[in-house]
């Protein structure tokens, strides 16, 4: 009898407004073992200079759903550079940096299956974001 291993998760963030990795973004990882189960926070990490988060906690056996919470407001406040201001100006949108960020956090929830790896990149800019299942 073989037992299935648990799923694993990794992520990275690219700030598409400046074409660079987003360094220093805090990320927390939560899991649950069914659609009606409560969320258990497993821990977290922060992105490195490459925008990658390589040390997220392992998922417990029986995990069916995962939630990644990206705390992006502090990143935008720290990186309110000329590049970011130019990107905002090109978006023809009102500045919202006075309050930190238009999206202060991004929460991504997805289903997982035992034995599979899930790489979930976040493409981020001051007024939008996109995610996908990578490899």
From TrEMBL:
MF-aspect GO terms: hydroxyisourate hydrolase activity
GO biological process, one term: purine nucleobase metabolic process
SUPFAM superfamilies, sorted: Transthyretin (synonym: prealbumin)
Keyword Hydrolase: yes
Domain Transthyretin/hydroxyisourate hydrolase: 9-134
Entry-linked Pfam families: Transthyretin
Keyword rRNA-binding appears in the UniProt entry: no
Record's catalysed reaction(s): 5-hydroxyisourate + H2O = 5-hydroxy-2-oxo-4-ureido-2,5-dihydro-1H-imidazole-5-carboxylate + H(+)
InterPro entries per the UniProt record, alphabetical: Hydroxyisourate_hydrolase, Thyroxine_BS, Transthyretin/HIU_hydrolase_d, Transthyretin/HIU_hydrolase_sf
UniProt EC number: 3.5.2.17
PROSITE patterns: TRANSTHYRETIN_1
Record keywords: Hydrolase, Purine metabolism
Function description: Catalyzes the hydrolysis of 5-hydroxyisourate (HIU) to 2-oxo-4-hydroxy-4-carboxy-5-ureidoimidazoline (OHCU).
Family the UniProt entry places it in: Belongs to the transthyretin family. 5-hydroxyisourate hydrolase subfamily.
Record note on quaternary structure: Homotetramer.
This protein's name: 5-hydroxyisourate hydrolase
Organism of origin: Streptomyces fulvorobeus
């Amino acid at each position: 009898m073989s037992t299935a291993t648990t799923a694993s998760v990794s992520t990275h963030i690219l700030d598409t407004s400046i074409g660079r990795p987003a360094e220093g973004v805090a990320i927390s990882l939560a899991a649950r073992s069914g659609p009606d189960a409560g969320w258990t926070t497993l821990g977290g990490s922060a992105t490195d200079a490459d925008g990658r988060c390589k040390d997220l906690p392992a998922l417990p056996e029986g995990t069916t759903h995962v939630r990644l919470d990206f705390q992006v407001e502090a990143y935008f406040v720290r990186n309110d550079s000329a590049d970011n201001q130019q990107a905002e100006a090109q978006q023809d949108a009102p500045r919202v940096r006075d309050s930190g960020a238009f999206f202060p956090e991004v929460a991504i929830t997805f289903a997982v299956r035992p034995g599979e790896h899930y790489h979930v990149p976040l493409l981020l800019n001051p007024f939008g974001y996109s995610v996908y299942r990578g490899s």
